[in-house]
Design brief:
The structure holds two protein chains of two kinds. By secondary structure, chain A is an alpha+beta fold. Chain A contains 13 helices and 16 strands. The relative contact order of chain B is 0.11. Classes of the chains: A alpha+beta, B alpha+beta. Bound molecules: adenosine-5'-triphosphate, adenosine-5'-diphosphate (ADP) and magnesium ion.
């Protein structure tokens, strides 16, 4: 009987075919959504009206990953949400099966391969890289060494004009109070090798814009990471007369989306200089503020955009002296909600609400430029819905991508991009003598001391 | 071609109250396969990262060959770190999957091709070079991953738990392959694992660590036959060595109702102690007339051999629950019955290890 480890048990999981290896699950349990490559068998499964991601993986790693993802969730760091580990699986023939880790499918997430399948503009690639750098720095700030940094282990979500990155794979991770430079450097080395490989793979598959070079992309990640880290944690020293620089540092960090919860401030022994260093910085400066004011839970740049619109609203309605919370409520009911409610139900899976609002604001700005007039919000919303939204793919679960467009290459297995395209057929595999040898493997957990003694004798003879 | 030495190397993490790696002294020979093993958190990975240049050395030195690399950046050390994770890229050929890190390092194409070709030959993968990896088996993928490291031709390979995410079967075949390849290549290798079976089957020598301190470094057989202390004795071997506490009496150590004879000169080393720990491996027990008496709880038959599990006979019921389990290998032809009482003795006095309870060192 399978066992379910979960913080909130979901009885809908019970009837699933746990006695079947995940790779052989019946199609009616599966959903073919785009995703990254993986070594393990990973499938998206239908559970009631929800979609979950299932990964078949050996027990100690499944438990470890569940634990790590739980920690990240508690720390409010972007990662997929762990739901359960299913252990004690036994196949119909009595053979034990590896456990399955279940996470919630991250809605509106875009794995990099699905972005690249449709061709990506060079500046989009830069944005993806930026999002990844922010994620890595955030993980490092909370003491999380990842160990397996790669594009495949990240999911992207639209975040106004930028992207937000989420962690998917925490198997190799460790958490400590604070990381050393060496531990962070280790992650960066892993990142550079993996990303170089992934960019080369996109290049080989004809999916990378020819103006982009894998090495240059990888270098830019290193540079950006170091810049960001220096801003987040670096020591700054200046003459006592320039105290405004303390405020400036905080503002710069806020603008980058970080709050300074604790700043270390010292004067030099001779009293002439001040030395500052942020000690505790939390990401989500704008999204926390927006959440507090409106209850809307959005990505950071979306929040920034919405807050800006709220400020414009306050100014336009002449409410500079009215309490922020009151204005926020008015903005929510008079601007945000009407736009979101104008979207027909069948189009709501295309973008999340905050992203739609952001795109409507953009649409209105361009229309206003074009027609040199003020465009009322609801007029822009109508225009956007009809001219833009209707023709966009569905991204909540990315369903329109399956089946692929006729001019797109077909995956060898629609549920697993790790197996490449169907049309690069190689013919029957060559014989491999090593494979045959590998079959008579001993029991991994038992020390065969007799064999060791025999081997040692052989050496000395 | 290089030796590696740690000389009094220490690493204290900021805020930690004791060093993660404490005065490590370890000399690794040219071409040697050295395995660092120990329970999680004992400082293995830290030691490896110190050698890689990814962790500051707070005091002491690290040498590669004649060079003091203590303060050199990672890229100047001529080492290749083999990561635990590897991905095969579906659109690239097996050859490109093996050689891409060389391309990244700016190695010219002709040289790259040659090195990939050589590595493929060594790995039995020549026939696969122009193929895409999608049809490769788990074992073949693992070999491509090894090829990635081999083509870099470093002075030293560093491997941190490269097999930890493989299933049992693949782990066994891959560990044999890595060890065989390392022997053929003759590149000095430092390999980290928490799995003592892996350590013992792969290493030329094995360094056992605990709480940041090197406990013993020796060939696998020496570790097994002559563990320096209680920790090594209990950590190495599966099933583990039986470690039984007994009182010192005239001529030996009393375990239950039996006095295990111990040489006087050994007992003399335990001056001032009342108790000693007797260690006997399960396969060194024989069923005998005289010996430690055991209540047999479980009998497990595995082919020609069997194991019996039980606890010291004659214990009161409440102590029995918490009593240490004793394991002995017995011939499966005539195994004792579950519920019976048997007497066990050491097959050979040299297989009885005596440890001081106070210092935990072996005194026999
Ligand atoms: N909760 C989720 N929501 C959306 N996508 C997911 C989720 N979990 C996994 N995926 C997708 O599945 C892919 C593979 O998952 P994952 O990285 O955990 O597998 P893996 O076998 O451990 O990979 P690796 O080879 O990197 O170790 C990811 O790249 C991601 O696209
Ligand atoms: N950044 C850190 N800060 C404090 N302690 C750490 C840090 N990184 C590792 N440690 C601790 O150092 C010890 C050794 O860790 P590690 O070398 O990873 O051990 P192992 O590889 O043997 O599991 C552990 O107790 C670990 O928790
Ligand atoms: Mg992954």
């Amino acid at each position: 009987m399978p066992r379910f480890l979960a913080s909130r048990p979901d009885s809908r999981l019970i009837p699933l075919p746990w006695q079947t290896p995940l790779a052989q699950w019946p199609v009616e349990n599966l959903v073919a959504l785009p995703r990254g490559i993986s070594r393990h068998v990973v499938r998206f499964i239908k559970v009631g009206s929800s979609v979950y991601a299932a990964k078949e993986v050996i027990e100690h790693l499944a438990m470890h990953e569940y634990q790590m993802l739980t920690n990240l969730h508690r720390l409010d760091t972007p990662a997929v949400e762990p739901l359960a580990v299913v252990t004690d699986r036994v196949a119909e023939d009595g053979e034990p099966l590896d456990p399955i880790l279940i996470t919630r499918h991250l809605e509106f997430s875009l794995p990099y391969r699905s972005l690249f399948d449709h061709g990506v503009r060079p500046d989009t690639v830069t944005r993806l890289v930026d999002a990844m750098v922010v994620l890595l720095a955030r993980l490092h700030l909370v003491g999380f060494v990842w160990g397996d940094v790669s594009l495949s282990n990240v999911l992207f979500r639209r975040d106004a004009g930028e992207f937000a990155a989420y962690l998917v794979d925490a198997e190799t991770a460790e958490m400590h109070e604070e990381l050393t430079d060496g531990q962070r450097e280790n992650d960066l080395q892993v990142a550079s090798v993996n990303l170089y490989g992934e960019f080369c793979d996109l290049e080989a598959g004809g999916m990378l814009d020819p103006s982009l070079h894998p090495m240059a992309l990888v270098d830019s990640i290193m540079v950006r990471y170091h810049e960001l880290w220096a801003e987040l944690t670096g020591v700054e020293e200046f003459p006592g007369s320039e105290v405004a620089r303390i405020e400036n540092r905080v503002r710069r960090l806020n603008a980058m989306g970080f709050d300074v919860a604790e700043m270390d401030l010292q004067t030099t022994p001779d009293g002439s200089h001040i030395r500052i260093q942020p000690k505790v910085v939390d990401a989500g400066h704008h999204s926390r503020l927006l959440l507090r004011l409106t209850g809307l839970d959005t990505e950071e740049n979306q929040a920034r955009r919405l807050l800006n619109d709220m400020m414009t609203f306050r100014w336009r309605t002449g409410q500079q002296h009215v309490d922020e919370a009151v204005v926020a409520h008015q903005w929510l009911t008079e601007c945000f909600q009407p736009v979101v409610n104008a979207v027909p139900a069948e189009l709501r899976g295309k973008r999340d609400a905050a992203q739609i609002f952001h795109e409507v604001l953009d649409y209105r700005w361009y229309q206003a430029q074009r027609e040199s007039r003020e465009v009322p919000l609801m007029e822009a919303a109508e225009g956007y819905i009809n001219d833009v939204l209707r023709s966009l793919p569905d991204e909540r679960r990315n369903l329109t991508m399956v089946p692929p467009h006729p001019d797109e290459r077909q995956l060898a297995n629609p549920f697993d991009p790790s197996q490449g395209f169907a049309d690069d057929e190689d013919g029957p595999p060559p014989v491999d003598p090593w494979e045959a040898e590998a079959d008579d493997a001993a029991d991994a957990g038992v020390l065969d001391i007799a064999a060791l003694r025999a081997k040692a004798k052989g050496h000395s003879a | 071609m290089a030796t590696v030495s740690y000389k009094d190397a220490c690493r204290v993490y900021p805020g930690a109250d004791h060093p993660a790696v404490n005065n490590l002294n370890l000399d690794i020979g040219d071409g040697e396969f050295m395995v660092l093993v120990g329970p999680s958190g004992c400082g293995k990975s830290t030691s490896l990262r110190m050698l890689a240049g990814l962790e500051e050395v707070n005091s002491g030195q690290i040498m590669i060959g004649e060079r003091d690399v203590t303060d050199l950046p990672p890229k100047d050390r001529d080492i290749a770190m083999v990561f635990q994770n590897y991905a095969l890229y579906p659109h690239m050929t097996v050859a490109d999957n093996m050689g891409f890190a060389l391309k990244m390092a700016g190695v010219p194409k002709a040289d790259r091709d040659k090195r990939v070709q050589e590595a493929a030959k060594l790995l039995g993968l020549e026939e696969f070079l122009s193929r895409k990896p999608k049809a490769l088996s788990g074992g073949q993928r693992q070999r491509v991953a090894m090829g990635r490291a081999i083509v870099r031709q470093p002075q030293v390979f560093l491997m941190d738990e490269p097999l930890s995410n493989l299933d049992a079967k693949l782990r066994v075949s891959t560990r044999t392959q890595i060890a065989a390849l390392q022997t053929r290549l003759g590149v000095t290798t430092v390999y980290v694992t928490h799995d003592q079976v892996e350590a013992m089957t792969m290493g030329d020598r094995v360094a056992v660590m605990k709480d940041g301190i090197l406990q013993q470094v020796d060939s696998p057989l020496t570790l097994y036959d002559a563990p320096d202390n209680l920790f090594v004795a209990g950590f190495i071997g599966s099933p583990a060595m039986n470690l039984m506490t007994g009182s010192i009496v005239d001529g030996g150590v009393k375990i239950g109702d039996y006095t295990m004879p111990v040489a006087r000169d050994v007992l003399a080393k335990a001056e001032g102690e009342d108790q000693l720990i007797v260690g006997i491996r399960p396969e060194n027990f024989v069923v005998a007339e005289q010996g430690i008496s055991l209540d047999v709880d479980v009998v497990e038959e595995l082919g020609a051999d069997g194991y019996i599990y039980g606890s010291l006979a004659g214990l009161p019921a409440d102590e029995k629950l918490t009593a240490q389990q004793i394991v002995a290998r017995v011939s499966a032809r005539k195994p004792p019955q579950r519920g019976s009482v048997v007497r066990l003795n050491a097959a050979d006095p040299s297989s009885v290890h005596i440890f001081s309870k106070k210092t935990e060192l072996r005194i026999s």
